Amino acid sequence: MNEEQAREATRAIVGDAALERIERFLHRVREEAGRQNLVSRPTLDSLWHRHALDSAQLIPLAPATGLWVDVGTGAGFPGIIVALATEHPMILVEPRRMRADFLRSVLEAEQITDRVSVHQSKVERLTEITARIISARAVAALFDLLGGTANIADRDTVYLLPKGQSATTEVDDARRRFDGLFHVEQSLTDPASGIVVATGVKRR
């Protein structure tokens, strides 16, 4: 899949208005990459394929409403993509100060700070919230992620976790320690990669 095909696939998911917002955001990522290491440099030429579409493909898998918490948002994938393409209230969890500052600048520029905020710390420090959706991309092993987010999840929380080629193996490991419904969706950006979708998760 080339960049134009990935851009069009993203448009099919998010629509024209959100696509314009995402284009502005990707331009900001390229600019900011000169100041801090936001994404792997080789992927700066494939932001639509490697990052935007890879993030946007989570949206159809999510419930239509409810608080979405994105763990380890980093450069904004998938959190900013989801924030620009949906009306979900969101919390973007990012412990690194420079990245958190960058995320806040994007939210302010797009005027969505009324429903999207940045939490600059580890997710374990979040309190008094329950997420309807939890996403995380390249943050931690599935078992560690489920354990680390237990403080903001309940049996109705839906996990959407791109896990690459390790998805099935990580699900098998998690099932030995957690109850719940787990399945793996094939990624749109890489047929060999999977997205773990989990609900009803509870530690045994």
Number of domains: 1
Q: What portion of the residues fall into strands of 2 or more residues? A: 15-25%
Regarding quaternary structure, what we see is single chain
CATH architecture: 3-Layer(aba) Sandwich
Tally of separate helices: 7
CATH topology: Rossmann fold
Query: Order of strands across the widest beta sheet?
Result: 3-2-1-4-5-7-6
Summarize the structure in short.
By secondary structure, this protein is of the alpha/beta class. The protein has helices spanning 3-14, 16-32, 47-56, 79-85, 97-109, 142-148, 167-175; strands at residues 68-71, 90-93, 116-119, 133-136, 158-164, 178-186, 194-203. It contains seven helices and seven strands; from the N terminus they run αααβαβαββαβαββ.
What does this structure look like?
There is one protein chain. This protein has 204 residues and is α/β, with parallel strands linked by helices. The chain has one domain (3-203): Vaccinia Virus protein VP39 (Rossmann fold, 3-Layer(aba) Sandwich). The protein contains 7 helices and 7 strands. Strands 3-2-1-4-5-7-6 form a 7-stranded mixed β-sheet, sandwiched between helices. α1 (3-14) packs parallel to α3 and α2 packs antiparallel against α4. The chain is globular, with a radius of gyration of 16 Å.
